[in-house]
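To the wet lab folks,

You asked to see what we're planning to order before we commit. Fair enough. Below is the target structure as tokens, and below that is the sequence we designed to fit it. If anything looks off to you, flag it before the synthesis order goes out.
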């Protein structure tokens, strides 16, 4: 008899054991965990019907004694049912795999279309971005010499240019999306990352041909690092193929104007700002040999790039460098001084009163511009009954920040009696309740006080056609020349002490002797400075 237990069908012992093994032990369970439940139910119903047919035939064997042929027919039917079920399962599995492959192909096509669209975008926008960067660089240079743009406006331009340059440079480095292909068995294949063709940039090439080269010495790597850092600070991490002779020439000009002390302190202004400050404050700049060394390092790298077709030519070779001493500053001539005082002051960031005060202090003391600009009110002292400027190092809290200043050399710490002509002109009117004597001057972001005046004076001088070898520092040369050519009985040692020079005739105990020079002797030196009447400014201070 046939009995039902759960979902399995079992025969009594009247049915041979081999049929029990086929029918009683074989489980025909259906998985309902496929993604298409409707198809699964249809397949289950079909299988259920076929199994019912098998068991109806087997049930008839209970009433009659089947022969061997009947058992063979029953076994063949069971095998046929199993084969049909497995064939249907294989067909559905193949169909499911085909659907998944079609979905993957469609997804891959969509990603390829996105990549192609992005590549087209970069092909159109890259030349425009490069042109814009060049224009911004030119604008940054132009505004530095445009006399019609105020300091505040220029700083605004610089900030905007820096911001736009950062955005554009970041966008230009954006990578393409990845494309991950799948194999036929639906397992992730090896990633095939296809990126936009970005031309090799300076940092990448330096890393490959210099920094990662075991044959390069530590000095070569250090020097090249410095040279490339200066270049990228000025022009960005450019594609090496875009570096032209024009850019190399601008880099040469920037290096030639760089302060000699740039990079040797804890904080350094950006290269373009440092060059501007060096020009306006007449700081000592790097030597021609230093500039030549920078170009030699860049040229050595470019030789590799040209040889490997990364760059069309070497823009850093065949330049000439003046390794001799730079142009000597000279004193003002009487004609140039007369031209200076007769011209109306055009600086908008500094008042006429402050301009005249700074110039007259320079004429009657020989002080450096930085020393004048950093005079504090407490540095105006009366010593032995004589009003004096006291040049000395100090630390002040300015706008909540600690600010340190010191003279250029140890000999720069000194006492300078105030000339009677300065007092008569009203120089003491500049004393105020604040920190600094000339309180109208400002402190630049990197700590230089008076760069606003230095810039304005330099432009004023250029507009009058005053030669390049004459600058604000030329007042110091003028004072030194006049004192050393006077006919009074003034010792050379006193002149050195007044100007803050190291003694021209050193001997044992010279430094101590200079520190002990009496104020009356220094006053004699100051009062020996006499100028033509035309040198008086039209109005008193």
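Sequence we intend to order:
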């Amino acid at each position: 008899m046939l009995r039902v237990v759960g979902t399995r069908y079992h025969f009594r012992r009247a049915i041979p054991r081999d049929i029990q093994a086929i029918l009683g032990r074989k489980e025909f369970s259906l998985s309902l965990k496929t993604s298409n439940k409707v198809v699964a139910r249809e397949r289950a119903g079909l299988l259920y019907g076929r199994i019912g047919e098998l068991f109806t035939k087997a049930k008839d064997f209970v009433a009659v004694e089947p022969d061997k042929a009947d058992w063979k027919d029953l076994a063949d039917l069971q095998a046929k049912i199993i084969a049909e079920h497995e064939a249907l399962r294989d067909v559905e599995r193949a169909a499911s795999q085909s659907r998944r492959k079609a979905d993957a192909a469609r997804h891959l096509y969509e990603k390829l279309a996105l990549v192609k669209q992005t590549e087209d975008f970069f092909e159109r926008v890259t030349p425009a971005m490069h042109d814009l960067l060049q224009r911004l660089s030119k604008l940054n240079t132009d505004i530095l010499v445009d006399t019609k743009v105020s300091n505040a406006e220029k700083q605004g331009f610089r900030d905007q240019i820096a911001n736009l340059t950062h955005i554009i440079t970041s966008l230009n480095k954006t990578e393409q999306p990845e494309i991950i292909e799948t194999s036929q068995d639906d397992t992730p294949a090896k990633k095939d990352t296809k990126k936009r063709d970005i031309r090799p940039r300076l940092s990448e090439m330096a890393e490959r041909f210099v920094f990662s080269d075991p044959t390069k010495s530590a000095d070569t790597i250090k020097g090249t690092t410095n040279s490339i850092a200066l270049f990228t600070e000025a022009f960005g991490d450019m594609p090496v193929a875009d570096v032209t002779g024009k850019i190399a020439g601008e880099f040469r000009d920037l290096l030639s104007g760089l302060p000699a002390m740039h990079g040797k302190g804890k904080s350094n202004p950006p290269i373009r700002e440092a060059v501007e400050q060096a020009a306006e404050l007449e700081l000592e700049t790097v030597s021609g040999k230093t500039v030549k060394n920078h170009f030699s390092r860049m040229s050595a790298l470019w030789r590799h790039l040209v040889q490997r077709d990364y760059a069309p030519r070497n823009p850093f070779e065949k330049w000439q460098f003046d390794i001799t001493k730079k142009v000597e500053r000279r004193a003002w001539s009487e004609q140039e001084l007369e031209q200076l005082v007769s011209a109306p002051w055009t600086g908008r960031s500094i008042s006429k009163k402050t301009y005249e005060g700074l110039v007259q202090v320079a004429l009657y003391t020989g002080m450096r511009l930085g020393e004048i600009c950093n005079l504090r009110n407490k540095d105006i002292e009366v010593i032995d009954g004589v009003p004096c400027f006291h040049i000395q190092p100090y630390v002040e809290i300015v706008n909540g920040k600690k600010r340190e200043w010191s003279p250029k050399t140890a000999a720069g710490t000194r006492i300078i009696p105030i000339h009677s002509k300065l007092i008569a002109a009203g120089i003491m009117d500049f004393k105020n309740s604040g920190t600094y004597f000339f309180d109208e001057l400002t402190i630049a972001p990197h700590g230089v006080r008076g760069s606003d005046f230095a810039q304005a004076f330099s432009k004023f001088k250029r507009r009058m056609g005053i030669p390049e070898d004459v600058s604000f520092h030329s007042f110091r040369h003028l004072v030194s020349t006049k004192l050393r050519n006077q006919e009074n009985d003034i010792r050379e040692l006193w002149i050195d002490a007044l100007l803050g020079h190291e003694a021209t005739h050193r001997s044992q105990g010279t430094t101590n002797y200079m520190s002990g020079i009496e104020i009356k002797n220094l006053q004699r030196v100051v009062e020996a400075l006499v100028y033509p009447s035309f040198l008086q400014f039209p109005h008193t201070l």
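Structural context that might help your review: The chain is about 55% helix and 5% strand. The two ends are 131 Å apart (CA to CA).

Thanks,
Computational group
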